[in-house]
Structures are given as structure tokens and as C-alpha cells.
TrEMBL record:
Gene3D superfamilies per UniProt: Cobalamin-binding domain, tm_1862 like domain
All copies of domain B12-binding, residue ranges: 4-136
Keyword Metal-binding listed: yes
One matching Pfam family: Radical_SAM
Residue stretches making up the Radical SAM core domain: 182-412
Cofactor(s) listed: [4Fe-4S] cluster
Molecular-function annotations in GO: 4 iron, 4 sulfur cluster binding; catalytic activity; cobalamin binding; metal ion binding
Protein name: Radical SAM protein
Amino acid sequence: MIVLFNPRATKPRNRRLPLAVLAIAAVLEDREDYEIVDGNVDDNPVASISRLIEQYDVELLGVSVMPGPQMVAAMDASREIRRAYPHVKIVWGGYFPSVYPDAALNAKYVDYIVRGQGEDTLLELLDAMRGKRAFDSILGLSYKDIFGLPRNNAERPMKGPDEFPWSPFHRLPVEKYLRPSFFGKRTAVHHASIGCPFNCSFCGVHAAYGNKERMESPERTAAILSHLVTEYGADSVQFYDMNFFLREDHALELAKRIEHLNLRWWCEARVDVMSRYSDETFAALKRAGCTMIFFGAESGSDWALKEMKKGISTEQTVTIAERTKQFGIIPEFSFVIGNPGDPERDTRETLAFIRKLKKINPDSEIIIYHYTPVPQPGDMYGNVDGQIAWPSTPAEWASKRWMDFTLRIDTQAPWLQRKTKDLIDNFEIVIGSRWPTVQDIRAPKWSRILLKTLSAWRYALGVYRFPVELQWANEFISLRKPKRESL
Ligand code: B12
């Protein structure tokens, strides 16, 4: 038997279908004996895994690992299982081991790493474990050789979603995952493409997947959504694609195919791509239920956008603010402020730019992060001219310093002066109070009015320093921040 484990990554109320383990389960279905254990549902996943090991002949524990709290849960559980059942092999897959394979493989309790797309690599790994092929022939696999030395096999070329079977939803209690959100009472999630053709220097996607994107056919996306609606009563969906819209004809066809499902939905897109879409496409997307789109606007400085290889311009972001307003779609603009090139200038210009966007489209949701690099292909020893040296073990990644880095709470980036960091953080609290997110469906009306009233003078006058009263009010009200959904 194979046990697939999704360690806890979020509060129960924010839990969503675990797409990574479902994708892996899809290729095991009808082929292998397997069970899924999800730490977002199960209060004691280690006990559940142990029970399975004691009852069945468990050959492999497959753990899905994202950086952040999920990595810590994966580390603790893998350690415990290794201690109690040393004969069970452990493989880690997902973003953490894909982006930091050496650190993951340094852990004694990790035997194999599956980098990037995992379906075929896992099947081949099972063959190798059963003596049917050599470990060094498996693309996308990292492992320890007979001397215990790390081996990173070459990358595996990505396949499109249509080349794999559908997720076996029936293996999970789906109703537990369709939770209320701003978009509906029963919100599902789906991934309708894989990869992203861009190379932004702060994003983990190309570090894990390279720079290609493969899209699911609109026909299959519509069929899966229709299944989630008719079988499980989904009324809304969040598309978790790294880049949902690439080709306009594809977007238009999909919109037409899903319109009749009456779903309200959210997705991620790029301002350069969407600013070129016709009015007809925007209107079709709106009719098809598109409610909110997340855009990585990243900076209000064109030079900073160039430095981070984003490939967009501030003008395109402005166009999107205008066009989303015209079509009644809420834009969610995310910024990564404090570019190492000139963090003070980037901060100044970006804060002014955010104010401009809010004027154009007051419904814009604003998400603010500190600029946080990820390892770039080729930079093995550090990042940003050697100013960041990466941890070499999961335990080090789990320390407060690196958890704050991962969650972008405090990157401790050497280029970011304290006063600039404070300015970014203070601005975030002022703008977040002046326009509380619409996405916290639990916040009572009075709490929004209180925050807006308290912050109005600060925003109007541009006074962001020492917003203690807002910190206090935010703590008291505890409004959900879309970006910190996991905590
Ligand atoms: C959904 C999601 C979340 C959800 C998770 C919900 C859930 N179900 O638990 C939530 C909101 C909780 C979340 C939170 C965070 N996330 Co997140 N998240 C994503 C997102 C949008 C989709 C991931 C997904 O489901 N993909 C679909 C599946 C099918 O693909 P996959 O995960 O890559 O899985 C494949 C392979 O990796 C591999 N694989 C995966 N697991 C396993 C296991 C085994 C055994 C094997 C063999 C293979 C394997 O095979 C799978 C199929 O091919 C990605 C961006 C993206 N579009 O990928 C960001 C992303 C993964 N998140 C990211 C980050 C940074 C975070 C946060 C740290 C953000 C924050 N500041 O709080 C937190 C921390 C999470 C935590 N608690 O530990 C980054 C990671 C970047 C990096 N540096 O590595 C990403 C890439 C976003 C980005 N562009 O920067 N996230």
C-alpha cells in the first residue's frame, strides 16, 4: 500500500480540496492500493498513518510539501513515522522539495524527492523500488545513492493536464472541503493549467516547473466543474492556476462552456495578457461568473518591474484597473515592495501608484508583501548577489527567522532598511483599514465602519506613522487577510 499525506496547511475553515495529492491519487487509482490522509481534515494524521502501517504492508509514504507551516507539519510527521517504522520509505513532493531539493534531501527521514510534476515520476519510482528500473533513469527524481550522497536527476518535461486521468474525488469526503467564501456557500477549487511561461524573480513556480505552460482543454475543465456542481453542489470555484488566462480564444471558449453552471469564480491572471483582451471577452467572462481576478502588479515602478523580470508595465496595470471597473469584476492587485535595486525609491513610487489605482477603481483589493526572492535556476550558493544564503535543512527552514521569510512577514533582507520596512507595513495597515477586504465574509458591518472611520484621516493626509489605534482595532476585529489565509 501507498499512503499519500497532505500535512496541515491551513485553518479548517479555509481548507480546500488538496489538489496535489488528488493529482497523484489519479494515477494510482485502479493501479495501486492507496489511502489519502489529509492533515487539514484529520486532527491526528500521524495516528492515522501509523494505523495504516500497522494494518497493511505500507511500502511508501508520499508527503506533499509546500514551504511554510505545511513544511513544518511534514517534517514533524515524517520524523515520527521514520522513528516508529524505519522500514517505510518516505518521498517528498511539491513546491518545497522542488525549489529546495538539497535542503529536503539533507533530512534523514526523506529518502526520495519528486521535483515538479509528480505523476509519472512517482510511478517510475515505484518501479525502481520494486527493482524494475534504475533510480538514475527517472527524470525529476532526487535520491541518495548507495554512499548516501544526493543525486539530482535531470528535469522531467511537463505534460498537459489532459494527459492524466481526472482526480478521484470519491476518495475524499468532498462535502468537508466545499466551504463558504466570498464567492459562494460551497466553494470548490480547480487547477486548469500547469506551469507558467514567465520567469519572475520572486516566484517559486518557474523554479519548480521551468517556464512552460500547458492548459487543460476548455471541454475537460467544463466537464470537471459540471461534475463538482451536480455531484457535490459546488456553487463557486477558485482556480488555483499559476496563470489562468494565456490565450484569449481559450478564455472565451471556456467562458461560453461554463456560463450555464452559474458559478461565481476567482482566478489569477497577468495584466499584460488581459489588457489586450477585447470587450467581448471581458463581457463573456463576466457573464460566465468571473467575480474577482488576482493580478501580480508587483510594483509601481517600471524599472523595478524590469529588474524582477516581470514583463509587465505600470500602464497595463492602470488599464486593468479601468477595464475591470467597466465590466464589474473586482481586481486583486498584489505588490512585492522593496526591490533590492533601490528599495526606498521602489517603496515611494509603489505606495503612490497604489493610491492612484484606488482612485481609478476603489473596489481594487490590495495585497502587500515585501519583495522576497526565491532561488533562481543556476544560483546554487545564494541569491541577489550572494546576499541571501539559503538554509540547508528542513529544520533550519522551520526556524522563526526562515518561517518569517517564507511567509513574507519579515524577510530580514539586508537591503531593506528598518524605516522602509516600517513604512510598507504601516501603509498596509492604513490602506487595509481604509478599505477592509470584501473577502472576510464573517466580519460584521460595524467592524468595517469602525476601521474605515478610524483610518480615513490618515489615508487622506498620507500619515502612516505609528498607526497604533489601527493595529489595536485590527487585532480586536481580526479581519481575515487574503494573503495570510494559511495562518
Ligand atoms: C493552493 C495554494 C495554497 C493553499 C493550499 C490549500 C490546500 N489545499 O491546502 C494555501 C492558501 C493554504 C496556500 C498557502 C501558502 N502558499 Co501556496 N499556493 C497554492 C497554489 C495557488 C496552488 C497549489 C496547488 O494546489 N497546485 C496544484 C497541484 C496539482 O500542483 P502541485 O502542488 O505543484 O503538485 C504537483 C507537484 O508539485 C507534485 N507533488 C505535490 N505533492 C506531491 C506529493 C508526492 C508524494 C509526490 C510524489 C508529488 C507531489 O505532483 C503534483 C502533481 O503534478 C500555488 C501556486 C500554484 N498555482 O501552483 C501556491 C504556492 C505553492 N504557494 C506558495 C506560498 C509562498 C504559500 C504561502 C507561504 C504564502 C503565505 N505567505 O502565507 C502559504 C504557506 C502554506 C502553508 N501553510 O504551509 C508559493 C510557493 C513558492 C515557493 N517559494 O516555493 C506558490 C508557488 C505561489 C507562488 N507563486 O509563489 N497556498
